[in-house]
Amino acid sequence: MRGVRGFPQRHEIDYLLVGHVARDLVEGGDRPGGTVVYAGHTARQLGCRVGIVTSAAPTEDLTQALTGLAFVCRPAAATTTFVNRSTASGRTQRLLARAAPLEPCDVPPAWHSARIVHLGPLVQEIGAPWLDAYPPEPG
Question: What's the pLDDT score for residue 38?
Answer without folding.
Answer: 97
